[in-house]
Amino acid sequence: MKKSLITRILIEGDQALLSRLCEAAEAAGEVEIVRQPEKSLVMTKARDSVSEQPFYLGEVLVTECTVSIRGAYGFGVLMGEDAERAYQLAVVDAAYHAGLPLTADWEALLVAEERNIRMRHRQEEVGVMRTQVQFDTTEEYYGKR
Questions:
Q1: For position 138, what pLDDT does the model report?
Q2: Helix count (H) and strand count (E) of the chain?
Q3: pTM check: above 0.85
């Protein structure tokens, strides 16, 4: 599983899963905080849909943290102010980089959580689609006047 997918699942998924994985990694290896969780501003890059040229949309507030387990570094960053989750993401990342044996069991948990995220997104999409206005019907109505 790619690192970007793991991070997305842990950020979008249930907070309890991230906490459980972090606690397991802390119990398995000695966690050393390299850089305390701190707030930063990063530039957000976007692409113009017409010209396809990149441009900077503006700054976004993020919280980032760096830790190490057995000499392997882990980095956690997420949008907003959440020092605890940035730390937890960094610990999980460091556990993967350190090759802790317990990370092999995490993939099944992450796949299940990804399924839950997809189901939640589908439910949100269904709710949005129910409120969607059909403008073509409105046009026909006004055209009969």
A1: 57
A2: 5, 3
A3: no
